[in-house]
Design brief:
5-stranded parallel β-sheet; globular; 7 strands; Rossmann fold; 179 residues
Amino acid sequence: MAEVLVVTWDGGGNVPPALGIAGELVRRGHRVRFLGHERQRSSVEDAGFGFEAYRHARPYSAIEPLPTPKAIVAIFGMFTDGGPGVDLRELFGRQPADLLVIDGMSLGALKAAYGLSVPVVALMHTYHQFFVNRWARGPIGLLGTVRGRSPQRLWHEPLVSWWPRLVILIRHRIRYRVT
């Protein structure tokens, strides 16, 4: 079956949906591995998936207490950082995948995926309207656009598409089919 690479970041609430999707893909016979921040290694490996830590991405932790100005700089930097894209390209060069599932907030990784000629899923792990109306049109979207990583452009590029028959598990038994 398919070799799937999930690209994520240490945001906390974005990890359970990614693990749920990965579990369902494995149940269906696919192989899944993750690329993310080192802090995520134990939760990903404990769930039974392979893991490689970022080497070029900015360090980031959702649980590290920071004063507000530093927290804002850290989160804006993490979302628009090109480092995850560098790591994605390097890992893909060593171990190609048939499908990339990339956190929709990781703009650098999404941009880097375009030249890889492989299907890409932008994982929206909260309400889609929040992403397109608030997040992408707010300060983070503006900064991403200035850095050449416009969220709305990246989410709607031809290579970013929903993989047919991808089933997302949200909470134990509620299943939503994405078409």
